[in-house]
């Protein structure tokens, strides 16, 4: 099939592929333009969601749209469309792009207006949705796990809102990469909060533990699904604070996100986790997670879009 042929094409093709919906119109990335006075650009005055598409079907889209509504309410932004309309447009965008393994990105800002801090009056929000081929997860991340580095959590006090103000996240992950790590985890007052674009879990005396979904973290959709799966598998779960010392002493650590799904962490700073390999609890939970995805029939790590590194 044409679309499948596209999916196995080389990464050099990737920048040309994908589609945009901007304020009511479908267009290519090259044609999509937003004002220099957009409040997203000027102030980071906006919110977003990233949704994974499997086999042409957006996964857990209702939860993502619900969270978008919560983020909008929290920043006092009135969404110009209903949740159903967001879903319908996302589905049409995916269908028109022909992409099967993809990411849908939704961003809503408070619109374009001369640069003054207070909310502008009579200005419509800017709504953009994009679909792109999914960012490949390196095969070694799946097979051998990842290394993380911890950083002080210098973000604001409302990390439960999925805002586009991501500078502390950008700086931390960049510094982690430069130090040879794959993700950065934030630590606030000695407690682990979350990753720069992921939630964190530990296995402690057989119990699956993750920090509580309060203002200090984003209540990840994947986090919620993995907690449910863990309970379904018969593990004890708890949402409680995790001191950095517990993270480093855990028998297993893993992170979750829409794009990364579930990834085992095998080293935190200088501490090796467990025996330095992805653990059994991670494997069990990730297997069940994969089995619940739309159109999943293949074993983890066998996607043609994944690269080895
Ligand atoms: N990020 N915590 C933060 C700070 C995040 O940015 C994300 C997701 C998560 C995981 O949430 P979910 O399971 O709903 O994806 C936790 C997305 C993927 C992004 O920034 O593109």
Description:
By secondary structure, the protein is of the alpha+beta class. The chain folds into 2 domains: 8-133, D-amino Acid Aminotransferase, Chain A, domain 1; 139-291, Alpha-Beta Barrel (D-amino Acid Aminotransferase, Chain A, domain 2), CATH 3.20.10.10. Helices cover 28% and strands 27% of the residues. Strands 7, 8, 9, 10, 11, 12, 13, 14, 15 and 16 form a 10-stranded mixed sheet that branches. It has helices at residues 2-7, 39-43, 61-74, 83-97, 139-144, 167-178, 221-232, 244-249, 280-291; strands at residues 19-22, 25-27, 46-54, 57-58, 102-109, 126-133, 146-152, 183-188, 191-195, 199-204, 207-210, 237-239, 242-243, 252-257, 261-268, 271-272. It has 9 helices and 16 strands. Strand 14 (252-257) and strand 15 (261-268) form a beta hairpin. Helix 7 (221-232) packs across helix 9. Bound molecules: N-(5'-phosphopyridoxyl)-D-alanine (PDD).
- Beta content: 25-35%
In helices, the fraction of residues equals: 25-40%
The value of Rg in angstroms is: 20 Å
CATH topology of the largest domain: D-amino Acid Aminotransferase, Chain A, domain 2
Shape: globular
Q: Which residues form runs of ≥5 with pLDDT under 50? A: 1-15, 302-309
Q: What are the distinct ligands in this entry?
A: N-(5'-phosphopyridoxyl)-D-alanine
The CATH class name of the largest domain reads Alpha Beta
What is the fourth-level CATH superfamily of the largest domain? D-amino Acid Aminotransferase, subunit A, domain 2
Distance between the termini: 28 Å
Order of helices and strands: HEEHEEHHEEHEHEEEEHEEHEEEH
The structure class reads: alpha+beta
């Amino acid at each position: 099939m044409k679309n499948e042929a596209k999916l196995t094409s080389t990464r050099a093709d990737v920048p040309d592929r994908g589609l945009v919906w901007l304020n009511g119109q479908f267009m290519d990335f090259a044609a999509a333009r937003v004002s220099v006075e957009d409040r997203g650009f000027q102030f980071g005055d906006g919110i977003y969601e990233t949704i994974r598409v499997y086999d042409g079907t957006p996964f857990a889209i209702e939860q993502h749209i619900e969270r978008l509504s919560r983020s909008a309410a929290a920043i006092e932004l009135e969404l110009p469309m209903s949740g159903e309309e967001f879903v319908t447009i996302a589905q049409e965008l995916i269908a028109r792009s022909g992409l099967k393994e993809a990411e849908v990105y939704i961003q809503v800002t408070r619109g374009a207006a001369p640069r003054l801090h207070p909310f502008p009056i009579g200005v419509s929000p800017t709504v953009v949705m994009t679909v792109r081929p999914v960012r490949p997860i390196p095969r070694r991340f799946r097979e051998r796990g990842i290394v993380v580095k911890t950083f002080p959590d210098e973000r604001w006090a409302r990390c439960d809102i999925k805002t586009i103000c991501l500078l502390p996240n950008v700086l931390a992950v960049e510094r982690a990469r430069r130090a040879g790590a794959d993700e950065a985890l934030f630590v606030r007052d000695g407690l682990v909060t979350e990753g720069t674009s992921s939630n964190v879990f530990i296995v402690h005396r057989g119990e699956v533990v993750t920090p509580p979904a309060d203002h200090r973290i984003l209540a990840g959709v994947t986090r919620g699904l993995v907690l449910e799966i863990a309970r379904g598998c018969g593990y004890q779960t708890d949402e409680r604070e995790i001191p950095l010392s517990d993270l480093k002493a855990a028998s297993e650590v893993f992170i979750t996100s829409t794009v990364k799904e579930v990834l085992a962490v095998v080293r935190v700073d200088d501490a090796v986790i467990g025996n330095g390999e992805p653990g059994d609890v991670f494997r069990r939970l990730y297997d069940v997670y994969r089995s619940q995805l739309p159109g999943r029939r293949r074993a983890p790590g066998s996607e043609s879009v994944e690269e080895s590194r």
